[in-house]
């Protein structure tokens, strides 16, 4: 976890990056990162300050085990050999990163947040899909 409170008058960078250059441990060594633009920070300031909270979750792939999906469940008469070929395992193949800006409420940013993830494995992996948690639930 990394918490930052920045004085907006001192924000010179075009982007604020997590993990920071001063971060220690395995997060600094990874290629995963979140980039927030200066404009997004300035739009969410309060009394000259902006609050940022970054959370990085490691090893969730060990907890969230693969889920088998049957692409052709509507056709129950398929023989077992065909069914095996049409079965896909979905896996969590990156670390999970969370970012909170301002009061931590859901906010609409005028500029995109850039998020970069490195796959944990590249062997026997096809058709990657980017997903997110539904924060409204």
UniProtKB/TrEMBL annotation:
Q: Could you tell me which PANTHER family the record lists for this protein?
A: G-PROTEIN COUPLED RECEPTORS FAMILY 2 PROFILE 2 DOMAIN-CONTAINING PROTEIN, G_PROTEIN_RECEP_F2_4 DOMAIN-CONTAINING PROTEIN
Note the Gene3D superfamilies from the entry: 2.60.220.50
* Keywords associated with the record: Disulfide bond, Membrane, Transmembrane, Transmembrane helix
Look up the signal peptide feature and give its range.
none
Q: Name one GO cellular component term.
A: membrane
Q: Domain named GAIN-B: which ranges?
A: 2-137
Q: What is its main location?
A: membrane
Taxonomic source organism: Bracon brevicornis
The name this protein carries in UniProt is GAIN-B domain-containing protein
Domain of life the protein comes from: Eukaryota
Q: Which InterPro entries match?
A: GAIN_B, GAIN_dom_sf
Location within or outside the cell: Membrane
